[in-house]
Specification:
6-stranded parallel sheet; 9 helices; globular; 243 residues
Length: 243
């Protein structure tokens, strides 16, 4: 029996976040340049997004390009930006009723890329299905620092009482304030770390790490991760008896 058949459709996680790792290593194993791995990885994005929408996942957040990725070789960064520009398929989003959003320090992106992304955000705004979120030029530490500055400014201006600052105050200022925290975070490629991704948001997220490189991560692999998630008991600090 496949994992797609095993999963409980009544217990699908609302928000799944994925660190898509292993494109470069996948390509290297095949004697190809790293950009080839990113090209195949982009095809995987479309397949996984379609499967996630089919399963009823409401939010799918993909760690697409980190703030640290700007330090990669210029040729690779340029190839990634070009791929990002060419892999946005609004027709697919519209056909599957998918909303599209971006988070991160996106002002650093090339102007033409940012305009293309924002156009897709606008065109899909009225869709009512799954929300596909790309984290681009994203750093969780940057995000938290920006929130701190915003809250401090509001306190200085007198629009926010420092004694009234709560966890909800911080969450409402985050880039991700339009969606719930992830229920499940998946990382492909064999590494076991968060790499500066959704640090605040993942306080009670369930983690799933696998050795599969992102280009090989298919629909069955996604269902396997969800099945694993469904075997866990999420207590949020309570005892089993209280759940």
């Amino acid at each position: 029996m496949s994992y797609r058949e095993k999963i409980n459709m009544e217990r699908i996680p609302v928000h799944v976040a994925i660190i898509m790792d292993g494109n470069g290593r996948w390509a290297k194993q095949r004697g190809q340049i790293r950009s080839f791995g990113h090209q195949v990885g982009a095809q995987t994005v479309h397949a996984i997004a379609s499967e996630a929408a089919r399963l009823g996942i409401e939010f799918l957040t993909l760690y697409t390009f980190s703030a640290e990725n700007w330090n990669r070789p210029t040729e690779e960064v340029s190839a990634l930006m070009s791929l990002l520009m060419n892999s946005i398929e609004e027709e697919t989003f519209m056909k599957n009723n998918i909303r599209f959003r971006i988070i991160g320090e996106v002002e650093k992106l090339p102007k033409d890329v940012l305009e293309r992304l924002n156009r897709c955000v606008g065109h899909t705004r009225s869709n009512t299905g799954m929300c596909l979120v790309l984290a681009l030029s994203y750093s969780s530490k940057w995000e938290i620092a920006e929130v701190t500055k915003q809250i401090a400014k509001e306190a200085v201006e007198g629009t926010l009482n420092p004694d009234k600052i709560t966890e909800e105050t911080i969450s409402s200022h985050l880039n991700t304030n339009f969606m719930p925290d992830p229920d499940l975070l998946i990382r492909t490629g064999g590494e076991i770390r968060l790499s500066n991704f959704l640090l605040w948001q993942c306080a009670y997220t369930e983690f799933y790490f696998c050795d599969t490189f992102w280009p090989d991560f298919n629909e069955e692999e996604l269902c396997k991760a969800i099945y694993d998630y469904q075997q866990r008991e999420r207590r949020f600090g309570k005892t089993s008896e209280q759940i």
